[in-house]
Design brief:
By secondary structure, the chain is of the alpha/beta class. It is 26% helix and 23% strand. The strands form four sheets. A six-stranded parallel sheet has the order 2-3-4-5-6-7. Strands 13-14-15-12-9-16 form a six-stranded antiparallel sheet. A two-stranded parallel sheet has the order 1-8. The structure holds pyridoxal-5'-phosphate.
């Protein structure tokens, strides 16, 4: 709804931000998505297999394509995002070798200085008569540097550069906005938007956003509930010492599940209607939660993020961003997809 008339082309890199590529992509197809973006060639190959012949989506690979990749791109009907003049030359040469037209997306860097042709390179390419011969240019894209809720001066500069470049490639559709650009308005979207995090319940501006529903819940069972006396310590390194009598729930979640260690900040889990503090360090496969004063029992589940504890808030508590929190959830954590499509 927020995308307006722009086509929504979901970004499903990093295993759909940790949520599970196949089920997520099939569900997005059933919601109308017909173009997807992955980061790596291997992700594009996996996505093609997960969608199968019944769902012939365009799959664009953000890394682009090198010499060795081109045959795999063709074999799996993937569309490279061409990020440099050498990549453009590689892909056009491959098309001529095969004697057929290949689809491509052109990425122009408008100020982020990450991937993409420089604007002057794109301009020169547009003026070279056979610069894109053999390639059907489907989309010209760029990526915004900032993700602020207000339009930043840099967003405007990037949009202006982007408009000047896309005018040189009238045959292609335009794509500028990721999640943040999508929410900034039409000028920052282009005709195709590429949301990632916003599809997975993370706010476009790295904070909870009431326009988005939480779609992912991480929860884990309480394994044991114990009483801790004043003066006793909890967990590895005796890093937490109880000042008063506590009830502590030991929860089955730890490093190997993707809980990040490098946080100095307090963390929380949601249990019995409130945010409750994680006590001390993560002790390998387990964390300890302060459940003093509420009824807790083995088997009850603690929410680490989800409808009660927004993923952006949980990420901020852990000193990181939603992308990292989601995509770090390890394979050991079972994924359950409600409403999954075959
Ligand atoms: C990751 C990525 C996106 C999606 O970004 P979100 O902030 O998650 O919406 C879009 N475009 C490009 C080029 C990306 O690398």
């Amino acid at each position: 709804r927020e995308a307006g008339r722009a086509e929504v082309a979901p970004v499903v890199k990093a295993d759909a931000y940790g949520l599970g590529l196949g089920p997520v992509a099939r569900r997005l197809w059933s919601e109308g998505a017909r173009r997807f973006f992955t980061a790596r060639l291997s992700e594009g190959v996996a996505l093609r297999a997960a969608l199968g012949p019944a769902r012939p989506a365009a799959i664009c690979v953000l890394d682009g394509c090198t010499d060795d990749d081109a045959p795999h791109m063709v074999a799996h009907e993937l569309t490279p995002v061409l990020n440099s003049l050498p990549q453009v030359r590689e892909w056009t040469a491959h098309a001529r070798t095969l004697g057929r037209t290949l689809s491509g997306v052109l990425h122009v860097d408008t100020g982020l200085n990450r991937l993409g042709l420089r604007p002057e390179e794109a301009r020169a390419l547009s003026q070279t008569s056979d610069g894109l011969r053999g390639v059907e240019l489907e989309v010209v894209m760029s990526h915004l540097a900032c993700a602020d809720p207000e339009v930043a001066a840099m967003d405007v500069e990037q949009a202006a550069r982007f408009e000047a470049i896309t005018a040189l490639f009238p045959q292609a559709r335009t794509s500028l906005g990721a999640s943040a650009g999508l929410f900034l308005g039409p000028r920052f979207r282009g005709q195709v938007v590429r949301p990632g995090i916003a599809l997975y319940g993370g706010g476009p501006f790295q904070m909870p956003d009431s326009r988005l529903r939480p779609v992912a819940t991480l929860d884990a069972p309480i394994l044991q509930v114990r009483s801790v006396a004043p003066g006793e310590s909890v967990g590895y390194g005796a890093a937490y010492r109880a000042e008063r009598a506590l009830r502590v729930a030991v929860v089955g979640l730890g490093y190997a599940d993707g809980v990040l260690r490098a946080s100095e900040r307090p963390r929380y889990g949601w249990f019995a209607g409130a945010k409750r503090a994680v006590l001390g360090r993560i002790s390998m496969d387990l964390i300890a939660l302060d459940v003093t004063g509420c009824e807790a029992w083995p088997g009850a589940r603690v929410e680490l993020f989800g409808p009660n504890l927004p993923v952006d808030e949980a990420a901020a508590d852990a000193g990181t961003i939603a992308f990292e929190l989601l995509s770090n959830v390890a394979p050991r954590v079972q994924r359950v997809h409600l409403g999954a499509q075959g």
